[in-house]
């Protein structure tokens, strides 16, 4: 059997691969760098220079404007509330259900598992879900966001798979010592499941922080709209150095770029603290499942 020797051409292949990766990296970094630099530019410089990458005069006026804007800060507080409360609520619901479905002695376990899997493939649609939320009098309430996004089936399946691989000996030992089922989950299982819990808490936090469609679908009160909706409203204003909305709020290009940075920074700040759990937590449940 003839084999082709790639040793001589390996450096060429590696050079092409590295060059391609560097090109992709530069293509991804350039828009982010442009947004950051534009947010520190003055309004006059944006008007006179047009396109540029490094501003001649650095200014924090755009960030100061957003901090002083009551509408922007209200949207920011709404996003923080939705993300923090929603993440805790979703993790509680997902963890409790995953722990129950991981027990072989649970009656109807196979049926419930099938129902969870079914929702990954089919959904009732937007209109029936909206009618259900309306019939429960949840419109214009944060609970319309919390309940409709309480459990993501994929997250549930992975966490359930992790709980299924939990050592049975540890659980039996805790029950012999008089530990209840809830105490077993709270005091033993959850502390040993920290990588999985931290990883999927981050997944839920990202989903809630980026809430847009459900917010405009269920929320009509402007004071409850999250940051993503407010950012979209800013971007919908026609381009120009000075734009004034119907409410008299001015959104210059620098202010818009600063709003984008404000929107992205919170998750970038949280991620390093959970990074050590991320890779481990994302793989544990899927491998054991």
From TrEMBL:
Principal location class: membrane
Matching Pfam families: BPD_transp_1
Transmembrane segments: 12-34, 78-99, 111-136, 142-163, 184-206, 254-274
Gene Ontology BP, a term: transmembrane transport
SUPFAM superfamilies: MetI-like
Location in or out of the cell: Cell membrane
Top-level division of the source organism's lineage: Bacteria
Keyword annotations: Cell membrane, Membrane, Transmembrane, Transmembrane helix, Transport
Entry-linked PROSITE patterns: ABC_TM1
Domain ABC transmembrane type-1: from-to ranges: 76-274
Membrane topology: Multi-pass membrane protein
Any one annotated GO CC term: plasma membrane
Family: Belongs to the binding-protein-dependent transport system permease family.
Protein name: Carbohydrate ABC transporter permease
Organism: Paenibacillus cremeus
